[in-house]
Amino acid sequence: MPTALFAATLGFAAASQAGAAEVTVLSGGAAKSGLTGAIAAWEKKSGHHVKVEFAPAGEMRKKVAAGEITDILIVPSENLAEYEKAGAIDMGARRDIAAVAMGVAVRKGAAAPDISTTEAFKRALTETRSLTYMDPTRGTSGKHFDEAVLPRLGIRDEVRAKATLGQGGFIAEKVAKGEVDMAIHQITEMSPVQGVTVVGPLPAELQKVTVYSGILMKGAKHRAEAQALLDFLASAEGRKYFIERGYTAP
Fold it and tell me: pLDDT band at residue 18, thresholds of 50, 70 and 90?
């Protein structure tokens, strides 16, 4: 390649790179498996970069309360009101991205418990030797299971006594390692874990389907690019990465 042309090519590449924004995202962990693929596709399409941090709901609240600002928050839609009340988000930028249900997982090769009805699920919980679910103060699924499901079944103290509370991430890894026998969590955070089998969703009357929404934070550095990413995630093109991984449309 002639020197002049080579220099011009390098100059164009440098200019393109210099014009690329780095959009920052703080997201709930349950969105991770779908979000990873969707973001990679958007980066390729837009030429911008995305830096993502995943955290449990409780940790996200602490970060925002401490004044941490990112371009985008991806959170359960039920939590948006508290962020709006705190003056942290721009509700006009809201995009509902995907929904996820809760389920049960056991170690691969273990007998799958019957969880097809409420009574069957109650029996499975009383018969299991040990289990894990998210710390209710840190995650949406744990809060629902501990504060709504267990009291309804009348076995809260019994189950708590043999439970190991998850602090974040893929808590079903405890099942894969043989540390506990059962996990109750959002399905999309259990299905990627090697060494476990997702038995199925909770019975309908005990189920909690969480819609994850993307929102711009007030003070976002790259508003236009961040809004473009939110629009992509909520589009059919972006949402397919979630649907392929077990999410449903919101």
Answer: low
For 193-218, write each residue's pLDDT tens digit: 999 999 999 999 999 999 999 999 99
CB atoms near residue 175 (< 10 Å): 28
Considering Cα of 151, then 56, then 94, then 45, what sign does the dihedral take? negative
Tally Cβ neighbours within 10 Å of residue 221. 14
The answer on 89 and 139 residing in a single domain is: no
Q: Tell me phi and psi for residue 142, to 5 degrees.
A: -65, -40
- Give me the pLDDT at residue 169, please: 82
Same structural domain, 63 and 125 = no
Counted domains in the chain: 2
Rounded to two decimals, the pTM is 0.79
Residue range 109-139, pLDDT digits in tens = 999 999 999 999 999 999 999 999 999 998 8
Buried b (16+ CB within 10 A) or exposed e, 138-156: bbbbbbbbbeebbeebeee
Q: Is the Cβ–Cβ distance between 185 and 168 less than 8 Å?
A: no
